[in-house]
Amino acid sequence: KAHAFGAECWVHIPAADRIKSDLASPKAWKGKLVSWPNERSGWGVYNPKTDKIVFSRDIKFSPPGQDDTVSRQEEEPEPPTVVTIEDFIDFDDDDEDQVRNDDEPRRRLPAAAEQREQPQEVVGVGDRPIRQLPQRAGRGQHSDWYRQNFVMFIQELEGHLFPISPTDKDPLTYDEALSRPEPERQEWIDAIQREFNSLIKNGTLEEVIVPEGVNVVSTKHVFKTKYDANGNFIKRKDRCVARGFTQQYGVDYNETYAPVARMTSLRIFLVMVIVHSFVVWQTDVETAFLNPDMDRPLYIEFPKGWDKKNPKATGLLVKKGLYGFKQSARLWWMHLMQTLEKLGFGHSETDWGIFLRKES
């Protein structure tokens, strides 16, 4: 479960750190969440009494809405029980676990718990019920809060769901795209032709007679329907890609590694932005992998739907990067590095995904 920054939580105090002679010594202290755990450290919790941040994996979170009184007994109690959705949804298919036998003796509950017993609510989407929410007794004083908010979430979700017909899914193959009803079929044909025209105009592919004994990499189409933020249809899009798993190592490619900036570097950069009031610009390079030149002659088969201009051609020579090749990401990174170096940038020695330029 994700917890918000600043969430109230309780950090367990090890027995060795408690005052053994004081039976009333608290077993946990209350703090605020300031960082999330990773493979090296636990949760980061701010202790307002010591004004320090402590890292621990043994913590409990207070359920939202908990009354925070000033008495010592309520200020430093036992860590509260963490309540999850599983406490209210029974995932077992056995009906005997969901229906209580009225002949069974009822356990006496505290007055507060007895007041919470209510008829079961049925929640669902449309006319189809999803699951009854069992009103289990003795789950803790905050179970009502979770139950009410979960039911509210399901009810709000109902208005955002809509049925999906099989034709709403993008085709997985060329033949499937051409089997769609009109006008969708023609829209896919147009998208395929736009992709081919773009590859030819960019100088990526050239019809050639493939030399004998050369490995010819197979290809496929990747189809995608584009929508705007409101879910309205924009266009059909096709991407012609190489099936990289048909490449031969040592012949068609060698190195494939492409550096990517580490998250630690990104965090440091954002801190510098805040401290120095820098302006941040974010850009996106369209069809990035199609920009660099190929590092060696590679050949692909004619993609389905390709209209040959040269009747003697037996394949296509790949002159620039193409999506799907194993070295495509590395070729793009090397192309980007060379371009940035011409502009006066140099990569960091500790993180090759970071480029810097000093100006006087």
From TrEMBL:
The lineage of its organism: Eukaryota, Fungi, Dikarya, Basidiomycota, Ustilaginomycotina. Residues 206-358 form the Reverse transcriptase Ty1/copia-type domain. Residues 87-97 have a biased composition (Acidic residues). InterPro entries: RVT_2 (IPR013103), SH3_retrovirus (IPR057670). It comes from Tilletia indica. This is Reverse transcriptase Ty1/copia-type domain-containing protein. Residues 56-123 are annotated as: Disordered. Residues 8-63 form the Retroviral polymerase SH3-like domain. Residues 98-107 have a biased composition (Basic and acidic residues).
